[in-house]
Known about the structure:
Phosphorylase Kinase, domain 1; 2 domains; two-stranded antiparallel ribbon; Aminoglycoside_PTrfase; Aminoglycoside phosphotransferase domain-containing protein; Kinase-like_dom_sf; ACAD10-like
Amino acid sequence: MGKCRHPIDETALLRFCRARVPGFPRACASLDVDQFAHGQSNPTYKILALTRRGDVCGTYVVRKKPAGTLLKSAHAVEREYAVMRALRTTNVPTPDALALCEDARVLGEAFYVMSYVDGDIYLQPRMEECSERRRGAVYEKMARTLGTLHAVDPRAVGLGDFGKAERYGERQTERWAKQYEASVGPGVGVHAEESMMTLIAWLRSNAPAKEISGRLVHGDFRLDNLVLSRARSNGDDQVDVLAVLDWELSTLGAPYADVAFNCL
């Protein structure tokens, strides 16, 4: 946790939670807000619901779009919310997506409220603080969780139109190429890297014409986007994935893209 780099209107948020979040505690008189320090292109906050005596009566997470001019299709908190809601009926572990607000008058940008999942999050892939047994168990569970995600039939959970099913590699190349090109050049005072432009040209020429596609992909499936059951000891190899986080880049596409990214 850290200092709120992107402060939010706590009074407006409390008013929204009382009106829209299912089961929000009636005893809540105020909110304590802390911004998560690690990562996030979308500012993310831990929210404690407090009684008049200062006792915690509920814990939530708020994730919102950042302020300012945004790249087209980036920071799609609405898509995150939609996919987590859809996955509630599957075996893919996600936080409970509780309420979405698309009215920018509330907090300045669109945001959603979800449940807080308490557990271990490992920021470094080597997991040097853990035993070899626990590292192995974590990576096995991570792989099995990814397989569970890719086994979901998007149409069965209402995500049949969540993205174009074909030519995922080509679409991803174009998406990231256009975002990179929009972030460089004289207008923004940043020069394009020649090596990056060479890579973009190569990818555009070599994107696979045929691929396994049409599955739900996460788009950023990595260790630090998983909440894991807490270790009872350093050698504890009994682990479960409690939640998969950060669904901003999820869409329909080729599952091997998730596998390849996870192996980096």
